[in-house]
Design brief:
Layout: H1 3-21, E1 26-32, H2 42-57, E2 65-69, E3 79-82, E4 91-94, E5 108-110, H3 114-125, E6 133-139, E7 142-143, E8 147-149, E9 155-156, H4 158-165, E10 173-179, E11 194-198, H5 214-224, H6 236-245, E12 255-256, H7 257-263, H8 284-302, H9 307-336, H10 339-353, H11 356-403, H12 406-419
């Protein structure tokens, strides 16, 4: 190799090193308060362990994960575990170890208290730099009026958390996942560099059995699912979708910062601009196709820098939306036809035709079939709620893309890129 070739090779290697070195370090915070011993259910500890394991598998170094759990102490009971063999009526108090992987290392570094949170962010602010990413997972009780519930009955409002995030450099991206009742209130933290995914909106209580939490488990599983990875990581939004798919308790209210942002934007819409709005006697699919054409035309006029991204995203979104519409219609039509009620009525007719002797003998069998049908009916109801919620939010997003101003589109782009960060 001649001298000139050597120089070019050296410059190329250094440019690759520079791009990797400045891609940003990854940090994480796991927060779980539990309120007190009685209310700190075992599922919160399980969620903490699963998320810690998922973050480690995603490549975040152990010393860059700060876990705030209950009292933060290494000794003393702090968690209540229910016994499934007694239908959760009997419980035992346990002392959770400081290590989350069973060795001597102390992973639980702070108590989940106001003081612990403040100390964590004070320390983190000294270490992070512009371009870094913080994954923040909250699994806890939530209050409609007081935000996150912490240890010893303390609480932490959205404004409290906002003041802590303000300690970080403005170039740090924060990816926050909530798993609390009324979790949607944390969507108010949404900014260009702060994106949030939630297990429910700001009006709903969520329910799980004391030892297991489907959304948190699905979220952690999504981070571990390396089949989702694109350029070496799993996208934050894909992990959220995994949690959502695993959880039917929120009845279609799993939300992201994009949903919150779009809902709070005012759009300049005039009737003469909306061709599809004037077409009342066309099929939903044809109307959707006309809306797509309008959106494509609008985006081509207002943006050049982001055009390749929007074209790709729009194509993917429309494909998914069309599938969502078909799925929605199928589920809805199956439900309104009353298939499950008809089956239940048929079962009832069979039961009434039995003799008293056969009823005594077959009662457990028919009771089991009836319960199975009711459970399936409830499952389909919740799937229907999810499909309907997805459908409405997707249409709202397409409407936004059609009428948003250039500045609104730029904000939308930044939030979506935050959600698409590869952990």
């Amino acid at each position: 190799m001649d001298k000139k070739g050597f120089v070019y090779l050296t410059l190329f290697i250094w440019s690759q090193f520079y791009s990797v070195a400045h891609a940003g370090d990854k940090w994480a915070i796991i927060l779980s308060g539990g309120y007190d011993l009685k209310n700190n259910h075992y599922r919160y500890y399980k969620n903490t362990v699963e998320m810690f394991s998922a973050l480690r598998e995603a490549g975040i170094k152990r010393d860059k994960i700060t876990t705030l759990y209950a009292d933060g102490e290494t000794k003393g009971v702090d968690t209540t575990k229910a016994n499934p063999w007694t239908l959760y009526f009997t419980k035992s108090e346990i002392d959770t170890p400081a290590s989350l992987v069973g060795d001597s290392y102390r992973d639980i570094k702070q108590s989940a208290t106001r003081q612990g949170i403040s100390a964590t962010f004070d320390d983190l602010a000294k270490k992070v730099k512009d371009g870094d990413h913080l994954v923040f997972f909250v699994t806890d009780h939530g209050s409609k009026y007081d935000g996150i519930t912490l240890w010893n009955g303390e609480s932490y409002s959205v404004s409290d958390l906002e003041s802590q995030l303000a300690k970080l450099p403005s170039g740090v991206s924060v990816h926050l996942a909530t798993n609390i009742c009324y979790g949607g209130q944390l969507l108010r933290l949404t900014k260009n560099n702060v994106c949030v995914v939630t297990n429910t909106d700001d009006q709903k209580v969520t329910y799980s059995n004391p030892n297991d939490d489907p959304f948190a488990t699905g979220l952690a599983s999504g981070l571990k699912n390396r089949t989702n990875k694109t350029n070496g990581g799993v996208r934050f939004i894909d992990a959220f979708q995994s949690g959502k798919s695993n959880d039917l308790s929120s009845n279609g209210t799993h939300l992201t910062s994009v949903d919150y942002f779009i809902e709070n934007q005012r759009l300049n819409i005039s009737p003469q601009d909306c061709i599809a709005c004037q077409c009342q006697n066309i099929s939903p699919l044809e109307r959707l196709q006309r809306e797509i054409a309008e959106i494509s035309e609008h985006l081509s006029k207002v943006t050049d820098k982001r055009k390749p991204y929007y074209e790709k995203y729009l194509k993917d979104r429309i494909t998914k939306l069309s599938g969502s519409l078909d799925s929605y219609r199928n589920r809805y039509s199956n439900y309104v036809r009353g298939n499950y009620q008809k089956e239940l009525d048929r079962l009832k007719g069979q039961w009434e035709a039995l003799s008293e002797r056969d009823k005594q003998r077959l009662r457990p069998y028919y009771t089991g079939l009836a319960e199975k049908l009711r459970a399936e009916d409830e499952y389909q109801r919740k799937k229907l709620d999810d499909a309907e919620g997805d459908h409405k939010r997707a249409l709202a997003e397409l409407k936004f893309l059609r009428y948003a101003s250039p500045s609104q589109l730029e904000q939308y782009y930044n939030i979506r890129k935050c959600l698409e960060y590869e952990i």
